[in-house]
Amino acid sequence: MLEFGMPTLIENRTLEDNISLCKELGLSFVELNMNFPEYQIDKIENTDLFYRKADEVGIYYTIHLDENMNIADFNPLVRDAYLETVRRTIEVAKKLVKLKKSKKPLTINMHMHHGIFITLPDRKVQMYDRDFDVYMDYFTYFAEMCEEWIGDSDIQIAIENTDVFREYEKRAIEVLLKKDCFVLTWDIGHSKATKELDVPFILSNKDKLKHFHIHDGKEIPPKNHLALGDGEIDLPDRLNTAMQCDARCVIETKTIEALRKSVKWLENLLCKK
To answer: What distances in angstroms separate CA 247 from CA 5, 207, 240, 255, one per listed residue?
Structure first.
């Protein structure tokens, strides 16, 4: 059965505001976004507060890691800081996982960082492409450490598509997906806005597809994070795929108004079935 949740919204300045809206809309969970100052690792480590607030109204959390996270950064000080952030986030998830009412593992969502590129007269060179062996060594280590940190906890790290996976990223993701603790997130709005170029890779790993970010989108001009029904995506088809994968879905609009409209759209769709 599909479970729907919401992201932490910029209009909601407090955890309580997000939880209240989640409960009002009949959603199951809030995805805590670690790009926000109020959901940095030192804040969410106050797990007693986060647990109590969610437990009071019967919801749970997923977690979205900082979008700037770059566990293959060539600077060891930066790389180690991101690794430590992931380790501590996993420890938070271990304490919050008991809130979860379903059999689905608790999801920690992550992006792939493209790294920097050098512009030559005739082309751009991605540093991770040039130093691919070093890049892959870092990701192999990351995979091993996450497996160790998670252990037998009911937690998975889901890798999200953003603006088209680079070839070196696909190779790294393949290494991660060999571990049971790694799965995929399909952001259907991002893939629409990038002409569905990531879809073949995502569907080739359909057995690992466990988390969805759903919002509407358009190809020309590229737009995403639209309210459901305001774009060009075949939403029933995407939701059917999510159901086949027994996935969890974040309604990832960026405003309260768009979230309300999307929930209403979903209610109307589900009533017709």
So the answer is: 12, 11, 10, 23
Q: What's the rounded Cα separation, in Å, for the pair 242 and 256?
A: 24
Structure tokens belonging to residue 271: 């009533």
Mind listing the pLDDT tens digit for each residue in 143-185? 999 999 999 999 999 999 999 999 999 999 999 999 999 999 9
Instruction: Look up residue 215 and give its two tokens.
Output: 């919002």
Supply the pLDDT for residue 181.
Answer: 98
Are 68 and 113 spatial neighbours (Cβ–Cβ below 8 Å)?
yes
Q: Tell me the per-residue pLDDT of 187-221, one tens digit each, with 9 for 90 and over.
A: 999 999 999 999 999 999 999 999 999 999 999 99
Q: What single DSSP character describes residue 187?
A: E
CA dihedral 34, 40, 44, 46 (to 10 degrees): -170
* Structure tokens, 113: 């960082």
Residue 17: how many CB atoms within 10 A of its CB?
Answer: 14
Question: Distance of alpha carbon 20 from its chain centroid, rounded?
Answer: 22
